[in-house]
Design goal:
Blueprint (H helix, E strand, L loop, with lengths): L1 H22 L11 H18 L2 E6 L6 E6 L7 E7 L19 E3 L8 E3 L7 H16 L6 E7 L9 H7 L8 E4 L3 E2 L6 E6 L1 E10 L5 E2 L10 H10 L22 H7 L6 H8 L12 H4 L5 E9 L9 E2 L2 E10 L5 H15 L5 E10 L2 E2 L5 H14 L4 E4 L6 H9 L3 E3 L3 E2 L10 E3 H21 L1
Parallel strand pairs: 3-6, 3-7, 7-18, 8-19, 9-17
Antiparallel strand pairs: 1-2, 2-6, 4-5, 5-20, 9-16, 10-14, 10-15, 11-13, 12-14
Helix pairs in contact: 1-3, 1-12, 2-3, 3-12, 4-11, 10-12
The structure holds ligand BES and manganese (II) ion (2 copies).
Length: about 450
């Protein structure tokens, strides 16, 4: 991979400039107002894949946002790696909390990123990490050192649950046939401590609506005699965790697999400084399920969190009103062997059961996703571990992640292929939050490491 690495060094400034161009397009998948920008981003990615040397590049329309596909199939005797990532991003709001425009990338130095970090929505999640793969591919091809067949599938709906990608997998099993799926959409422990993600949580996401009276009322004339749906909703939400922060929905934990003591011991040996964690977040204490550590609470345990709540008057000044309705969006992160549909169902039943007769409730299900755990005794894990060891000078630590990438479980069930989650972000990069950033160190470390994955995978497979 020597020629590849030399090529990367010669072209590193151009690689960065191109990524900044990609970050300038606001590919917010959740908001229909950005539909054209999302489409332009897909075209941009396709164009860069073509320029890198990929064949049969296409922008495939779906019922939602398009999927970008491209490939380089040079030798059927070599293994085939499918690179998956997403070019869509989360909404950038609240805009006023950004120190520079979310789609106006700038490089700033920080304590954790002394070489500079790119501040922009999607810089880490996941445009910056997708772009590492396109550039590593370009470099290997230009250097004549591509050891595997490669397929790229970069989607535009990951941040909205990948709702159309399952059908694309079902309909294109042959085209997507591969030996392994390589994904960079997760984090490492820190820039001196590489890690590989060996698990993702699943997700059940619901929206609830609580209705009291059939219209807004004067809070003095009716207040005290008619249920206030915001008060009721607050109580209902509060009751869903007990004093030990266990979730009270009957049956919620029924299918949760118990993690053996030796595995829990091992995961708690990973470097983690709770004091730094708290001071970084500005919190006086961590908070979570009794009997579990912070590392366990964010990986092997399920959660229930309100993501948003609204209702009543939130404008300037005070309006005395007894609102008719209250709403909340609630996510539940799931662990093996919980099933998102079953959990959604249990939630809905419980939510209706605890509602007092003074209100009516409705529960609407959003997208969900299955949890995954990936083994470490596979050629793909070993290849990723060797690649990281080579470029970081240290063997990576296997660690389960708390986030979700719903399509990963479907890769296994539909295509019959396992994934390797070799991400390069940091948990502190503010993904989904104002001031998302991605270290230049991380961007370049990814481009440097990926070619070694291909090399070792071809050797070990
Ligand atoms: N890249 C993240 C998932 C992630 C981040 C996993 C860090 C592990 C560590 C992904 O883009 C994401 O945000 N997924 C959503 C899924 C949802 C929208 C269906 C999530 O986890 O909230
Ligand atoms: Mn992502
Ligand atoms: Mn994300």
């Amino acid at each position: 991979m020597q020629k590849t690495q030399t090529y990367i060094q010669h072209h590193q400034n151009r690689f960065l400039e191109e990524l900044l161009d990609l970050l300038r397009i606001a590919s917010v998948s959740a908001d229909p107002a950005y539909k054209d920008d999302v489409a332009r981003t897909a075209e941009f990615v396709a164009e860069k894949l073509r320029a890198a040397g990929a064949d049969n590049v296409e922008v495939v329309p779906t019922a939602g946002h398009p999927i970008v596909y491209g490939e380089k199939l040079s030798d059927p005797s070599k293994p085939t790696v499918l690179v998956y990532g997403h070019y869509d991003v989360q909404p950038a709001d609240p805009l006023e909390l950004w120190t520079s425009g979310p789609f106006d990338p700038v490089i700033k130095k920080t304590e954790l990123h002394p070489d500079g970090a790119i501040y922009a929505r999607g810089s880490c999640d996941d445009k910056g990490q997708v772009y590492m793969h396109i550039k590593a591919f370009e470099a290997m091809l230009a250097a004549g050192e591509l050891p595997c067949n490669v397929k790229f599938m970069i989607e535009g709906e990951e941040e909205v649950g990948s709702v159309n990608l399952g059908a694309f997998l079902e309909g294109n099993k042959e085209k997507l046939a591969c030996d392994v799926i390589l994904i960079s959409d997760t984090s490492i422990i820190d820039n001196q401590t590489p890690s590989i993600n060996v698990g993702l949580r699943g997700l059940s996401y619901v929206e609830v609506e609580v209705t009291g009276a059939n219209r807004d009322l004067h809070s003095g004339v009716y207040g005290g005699a008619v249920a206030n749906p915001i008060n009721i909703l607050s109580k209902m939400i509060a009751s869903m965790q007990d004093e030990n922060n266990h979730i009270t929905i009957p049956g919620f934990y029924e299918d949760v697999l118990t993690v053996p003591a030796h595995e829990r011991k091992a995961m708690n040996e990973a470097p983690f400084n709770e004091k730094h964690y708290m001071s970084d977040l500005g919190i006086g204490s961590v908070h979570g399920e009794a009997g579990y550590t912070t590392l366990e609470r964010t990986s092997i345990r399920p959660t229930l969190d309100v993501n948003g709540v609204w209702g009543g008057y939130i404008g300037e000044g005070a309006k005395t009103v007894l609102p008719s309705k209250a709403f909340a969006k609630i996510s539940m992160r799931l662990v093996p062997n919980q099933d998102p549909d079953k959990i959604t169902d249990l939630f809905a039943r419980h939510f209706k059961a605890i509602a007092p007769p003074s209100v009516q409730v409705e529960v609407r299900a959003h997208h969900g996703g299955l949890p995954v755990v990936t083994p470490t005794d596979t050629p793909e894990y070993q290849a990723a571990a060797k690649a990281m060891e080579q470029t970081f000078g240290k063997a990576p630590i296997p660690q389960r992640g708390g986030g979700s990438i719903p399509i990963v479980a479907l890769f296994e069930s539909i295509l019959g292929v396992k994934s390797v989650l070799m991400g390069f972000g940091l948990d502190s990069d503010n993904i989904h939050s104002p001031n998302e950033h991605y270290g230049l160190f991380n961007f370049y470390k990814g481009i440097e490491t990926i070619p070694y994955f291909y090399q070792y995978y071809a050797e070990l497979k």
